[in-house]
Amino acid sequence: MIQVNEKETSIVPRDEMQNGGFIQAQSIIFSSKKLQDDLHAIGLKIKQHEDNVKLLKSQRNKLEDSILDMQVILGKYHASTPPDTENTHNSNQSEEEIIEQILRHEMSAAALFYQLRVRHGSDASDASCTNDVLGVVATLGRVDDDNLSRLLAEYIGVESMLAIVCKTYEGLRALETYDKEGHIDSGGLHGLGSTIGRALDGRFLAICLDNIRPYCGEFLADDPQRRLDLLKPKLPDGECPPGFIGFAVNMISVDVTNLFYVTSSGYGLRETLFYNLFSRLQVYKSREEMFRALPCISNGAISLDGGIIRTTGHFSLGKQNNVDVRFPKPSSNPPDIYLETEKQLKEVTWKKEKMTQDIKREQSLWNAAKYNFERKKEEFVKFLAETSAYATQVAEKLQRAFFRLSQALADRDCPFRTCFVVGKQSVASVNLVHFLFPLFQPNSSVHVFRFFCLSEAVKFVTFLL
Q1: What is the pLDDT of residues 328-373, one digit of tens each?
Q2: 247 Cβ partners below 8 Å, 6+ apart?
Q3: pLDDT tens per residue across span 132-175
Q4: How far apart are CA 457 and CA 465, in angstroms?
Q5: Cβ neighbour number for residue 423 with a 10 Å cutoff
Q6: Contact 123, 114 (CB under 8 A)
Q7: Is the CB of residue 230 less than 8 Å from the CB of residue 280?
Q8: Looking at residue 164, what is its pLDDT?
Q9: Of the residues 19, 204, 428, 434, which has the maximum number of CB atoms within 10 A of its CB?
């Protein structure tokens, strides 16, 4: 090893300057790492609180869906404003009253069917054309709320409410027969009407259950009415539209006498007849809430204050029609399953309220973590601004040192060409030159200077100067 000439004072190491620069560099490195670690830790807290809020909201949405389903089962629909109709009644009508309303449509097939059944029972039992008839639409469903019943009847219209429902295609063909020229003859309902002095006037609607395309999805769990498990409308934020009550097809109760009836393919009345009539018709509390939910409505909607959207872009405006043929009220004595559902509804509602409080608390922690992150980020930016002056100073010293080192290495007789020796410590100058050279290219910046190499650079500068 070649010893440094002590007379060369310009390159004699000064321990005080070297130690001071080294300590300052270490302090900068330590402070920078601590600030970065703090930012990372706060960032993890922000992510944790964000995930917690998303999870809680997802769970609350499921509880809200369950609440809607149970409210539909219990028949809890209340209009936000009274319906705009004249001569309306305050209570639901019974099935007997609905049949009386049907009989007032004297020239209809539905009236003829019930005349045969109620007033001419023997003729009805002998009439082969009605053996396959299950009933009339208006008497096959039950609705707990009179206002909702009126709205549903107005939506599908009187013709559909008076439609004759047949089980099979053969039964439908028996309702009307034709001669060789294709004209209606005296068979079927037309012949029966003539025998009792009740001729049918015009067309009438008949529905064949076996020919209806049924709903093929899942059903609500533990529901004796087998309501359809339809996907509820969702806003872009994942929330259910405010005011959404449920689907009309699930707000109709099937009478116990027909609850277990199934078609030849194994489908019940709800997934055939009522799904065909109402599809995924949505029910809202008010027009305003229904209109705000337009992006979520694809198969029509009604509101309890009289609003009707038949299909996308088709709105029914004006006064609500007074429909006399409606769905009758259900049984006044609900089975035990409804009492249990009422109890479950209270429990789920309590859980939803508690979860809402948990979301608010988690949201507050999330906001506090984001605030702390912003403050810590400002502190780090300020630290970088303050230390950049020191980094610039060190870079200028390195430039001078590099310049002097280049001059020294240009001299082949320079004793420092191979290495510099300070006591027992040596620094490989060639490797250091290769390391330092990119820092001072024309396109380089002070920001290229990294703190992890700061301490070694300071030792080298203080050694040279």
Answers
A1: 887 655 555 566 677 777 788 888 888 888 888 888 888 888 888 8
A2: 72, 228, 230, 278, 280, 281, 282, 283
A3: 888 899 999 998 888 999 999 999 999 999 999 999 998 888 88
A4: 12
A5: 7
A6: no
A7: yes
A8: 92
A9: 204
Strands in 308-311's sheet, in edge-to-edge order, are: 244-247, 282-284, 301-303, 308-311, 314-316
Q: Choose among 132, 140, 130, 133: nearest CA to 95.
A: 140
Distance from C-alpha of 411 to C-alpha of 420, rounded to nearest angstrom: 15
Q: What value, to the nearest 5°, has the Cα angle with vertex 450 and ends 448 and 456?
A: 125
Tokens of 417: 């060409």
The answer, as to whether pTM is greater than 0.90, is no
CB 134 within 8 A of CB 354: no
Give the C-alpha separation, 173 to 167, whole Å: 11
Task: List pLDDT tens digits, range 5-21.
Answer: 444 444 444 444 445 55
If one counts every other C-beta atom within 10 angstroms of the C-beta of residue 266, the result is 8
Strand segments (E) across 20-148? 133-136, 141-142
The four Cα atoms 365, 368, 370, 376 give a dihedral, to 10 degrees, of: -130
